[in-house]
Amino acid sequence: MDKDTGFCVGTAMIRLSGNYLGLDLDECTSGSHNCGSQQCINLPGSYKCRCAAGFEFNEVTMRCEDVNECTKFEGHVCSLHATCENTIGSFLCHCKPGFVLNADGRNCDGRYLKFGRIRNRH
Ligand SMILES: [Ca+2]
After folding, report:
1. Which tens digits make up the pLDDT trace of 46-96?
2. What is the Å distance from ligand 1's center to 72 Cα?
3. What 3-state DSSP class applies to 61?
4. Domain 11-66 maps to which CATH number in 3.40.50.2300, 3.40.50.720, 2.10.25.10, 1.10.10.10?
5. How far is the CA of 42 from the centre of ligand 1 (A)?
6. CA of residue 91 to ligand 1 center, whole Å
7. What are the angstrom distances between the C-alpha of 57 and each of 47, 71, 119?
8. How far does the centroid of ligand 1 lie from the alpha carbon of residue 97, in Å?
9. Which of 50, 81, 109, 118 could connect to 39 by a Cys-Cys bridge, CB 3.0–4.6 Å?
10. 109 C-alpha vs ligand 1 centroid, how far in Å?
11. CA 56 / ligand 1 centre spacing (Å)
């Protein structure tokens, strides 16, 4: 309970012998959470969401939000020969012209002629 305002966040206020007490409300079972389809975890006076991979919990909005891997991990998610595109819950690497995406979805193989043979480079 906020002592200045007497306002209970995530709680129900009850009055016992002239004193107000905050009683925890379970936002997860009451359905008053913002977790959407992601897991809700009740906490005393509050709750948090357990976010799936590719999402992180925002304590201001109280919901799971997409991680923009392209900006958060810039230069580390895709090959130097690729551009990164953020998607909801994930990201995509798009290879630059002349390069082909590897099975890992992150690295690009380039093909060039050397001594008359097609060789791969990374
Ligand atoms: Ca993302």
Report:
1. 899 999 999 999 999 989 999 999 999 999 999 999 999 999 999 999 999
2. 10
3. coil
4. 2.10.25.10
5. 26
6. 5
7. 11, 17, 45
8. 24
9. 50
10. 24
11. 10
The CATH number corresponding to 70-121 among 2.10.25.10, 3.40.1670.10, 3.40.50.720, 1.10.10.650 equals 2.10.25.10
Q: How far apart are the first and last CA of the chain?
A: 58
Provide the residue ranges of all domains of the chain, joining segments of one domain with +: 11-66, 70-121
Global pTM?
A: 0.65
Backbone angles phi, psi at 84, to 5 degrees: -105, 135
> Same fold for the domain at 11-66 and the one at 70-121?
yes
How far away, in angstroms, is 89 Cα from ligand 1 center? 5
Pair 102, 95: CB distance under 8 Å: no
